[in-house]
């Protein structure tokens, strides 16, 4: 009996070990182009579609199997007829993950397009036509994988920005008259202030040959379309250039202008069909978890610019929560070693509740919208406001710090991604966009050739982000008033009137960190923006630590906000731009190397510390000391190790804090991406960078000047560099008791547009008999009409 029990025990142990071994073994399902969905899904008998493999895993889970799973896709292009949506029931675990990957060393393409079978016929001239199935509609067409140009005016020119071609007469009545039926066309334009793009669909034309338009909701600070930067596409009469196409969906006919020598019978044509390829869809209560997507190419999603409607918190952004890969309600999932290209919309969208998502080692290029978007739920925000001019009354404000729910991304990592040539359609986009999130790490990314910011943080909720070792350059190429890195604050305490803001902060100093509860760190990055600021902390950006960064062109700007500590940065050929600071900002700017005097605008208080900085020109130091700052500023002669190759480490660092500016580890580090990535063009060091003295104009004992710099334009919220800035109104000025204020920008007098001092002076010279003057001004970024008493003496 004893022997029997021992044998039974040994058998049980053996059986248990066998069961554990079987349980731990990874189950694999294979997919191949030449497979069949009637097969068994093994390596020798693969499925034909990823969807079938996914369904097989669902059935496996229903048997109670909880071990590791791999779907292995072999080489080929897979045209998806519907997105692959993974739910919580399909999740893996930390010990036994679920992986969907390309076979090692093989190219696997998941396409959101459908291949078109076309029988071409000569139409007229250089044009050909082919019938498409009834009901066919698409916004993107590809020939042998290359994106074609929808018939447009003006014609596509890769050397022109913005939009690769624009024209003021793109939708003029004279041009519209030549179009038989433009319904279904699209008008793309910049925002009037060049703060992103606007998009419209044409629903018809009126008797006066103007267009009926639907849209324009793609910017959260609405404006008319820019009068010059605009183009129109999907108009049959504009089909006049090789590589262009037009789809008549009513007559289900595709027209095409072939490239020279192109044999249409040998070309594979593909039309975008789906907006999304893979979605991980769970919730905070029931998350998808422990799924890895690896080594797959995601291509040819449909453009989504007409669906970009949802406003983000008081920023200039609207969004559409969609991407080639969408992640919503997910924990511990990974997207890695993938390629995203030829997409109509966003590449990756991380939406609502997400924790510990990793997006790493991906190439994202040639896409219509944004790269990686990380955006929480507005319902997780206390006292949210959505438009710049919105105000949350103090009596109605929720004053509990931090989020209201957990429905937002946190503890996620974006690392080692190469992001370039994005925003080909939509212009209010970024390589990495963060909004309503916490503790997001953005490390070792290379981002360039983007229409607006490379990295954007849209609000103060809830901070704790770390941006390090990123290489961001060739930014703000098609827009204006922005930076390589850009942020906004405008949190629940925000008010656009600075006097009101000063009163709020004096009464409730703790409110400024109700949303920005954790410090956001920006360190060891290389930024370059020749069309704005290298680092641009805009309206209300609060609770930042910015150190050990190399800024190559645009300098560093701090606009309204609180508790920013900026130190140990090198600002090449530029300097510090403090704009429109509030009282008691508690800002600190110290131990930075600057090459210009501080370019302060509408500053009435200098924060806690603006001192101990290093200057390369004595005249700049003297200018700043005359302003009452930089009592301990020092003049140095910088000797960089090799600025021509980007090594801006100082040869003599004795007593100086700059020891990390050689930047050997900035940008992507993965060999495959490092071999593809470019570097910025390193600037020559300017030997005389002093500011020129502004021309001033004295009127009624008050000081006025032209709007001349991007900083002055930005501080006033102007669409361009025109207008006359009121610099100072002394107490004894006849204007002291008028409605005019220092900081106002005069843009009109008595209905006449004023661009500069010459036009204002000329107008005033002809208005000596007037007793009052009606002015159009911009104050607090809002256009206003005021009347002032006018005394010609």
From TrEMBL:
Keyword annotations for this protein, in alphabetical order, are: Signal
Query: Looking at the keywords, is Signal present?
Result: yes
Q: Name one Pfam family in it.
A: PDZ_2
InterPro entries reported in the protein's UniProt record: PbH1 (IPR006626), PDZ (IPR001478), PDZ_sf (IPR036034), Pectin_lyas_fold (IPR012334), Pectin_lyase_fold/virulence (IPR011050)
Please list which residues make up the signal peptide. Answer: 1-22
According to the entry, every stretch annotated as the PDZ domain falls at 721-788
Q: Is-annotated flag, keyword Signal?
A: yes
| Taxonomy, superkingdom | Bacteria
Q: Which PANTHER family match?
A: RIGHT HANDED BETA HELIX DOMAIN-CONTAINING PROTEIN (PTHR36453:SF1), SECRETED PROTEIN-RELATED (PTHR36453)
What's the name of the protein? Answer: PDZ domain-containing protein
